[in-house]
Design brief:
By secondary structure, the protein is an alpha+beta fold. The protein has five helices and six strands.
């Protein structure tokens, strides 16, 4: 007898807490996710290294309980290995393989959608040390470099787009590479 499929209703209650536990692991024992699409240029690595050396870790790496793979924090893991860190803090989450892909595809682009309160940023800069201002400048120059390359042509308004590069904003239709 065939089973009836049941359409799941969207959750209208509180958000589901997918965090299962916190811990620390040796960074060389963690698995990179094969669907991680992020590439970390040297300028980003230098800026993160400066922040880590100046302030230290303030954000856990996110690992899927089911697959054991990293969902966020690949660069921090890579840097922890190269710097000889014994452990790195982990937030473990219980998500499906499909949810892993959604997290990988959206976690950074969602953060990049935030806009700055320029007055608050300016006020904060007035109280920062020269060392911190230099690190902030490194990060800002990397973000400003993330614009569409000049060799890309403008898209016509009559062309529907299905995909958007989260780094440079270039839009295209058709298959993703």
């Amino acid at each position: 007898m065939a089973r009836k499929s049941r359409k799941l209703e969207p959750s209208i209650g509180p958000w589901r807490n997918r965090i299962t536990r916190y811990g620390e692991e040796a960074p060389d024992q963690l698995l990179a996710h094969e669907n991680n699409w992020r590439i970390h240029p040297g300028t980003q690595q230098a800026a993160l290294k400066a922040v880590l050396q100046t302030v230290g870790l303030v954000q856990n790496v996110i690992i899927s309980e089911r697959s054991g793979k990293c969902l966020d924090g690949h660069l921090r893991i890579q840097m922890a290995i190269s710097e000889g860190q014994q452990t790195i803090p982990i937030t473990y989450v219980d998500v499906t393989p499909e949810e892993e892909k959604l997290i990988l595809a959206t976690i950074d682009p969602l953060s990049a959608m935030a806009v700055a309160d320029e007055d608050l940023v300016a006020a904060m800069r007035e109280t920062m040390s020269a060392e911190f201002l230099e690190i902030e400048k490194m990060c800002k120059s990397e973000m400003e470099a993330s614009v569409a390359p000049t060799e890309f042509t403008e898209k016509g308004d009559d062309i529907s787009t299905e995909h958007r590069c989260p780094k440079c904003g270039y839009e295209w239709s058709g298959k993703q590479a």
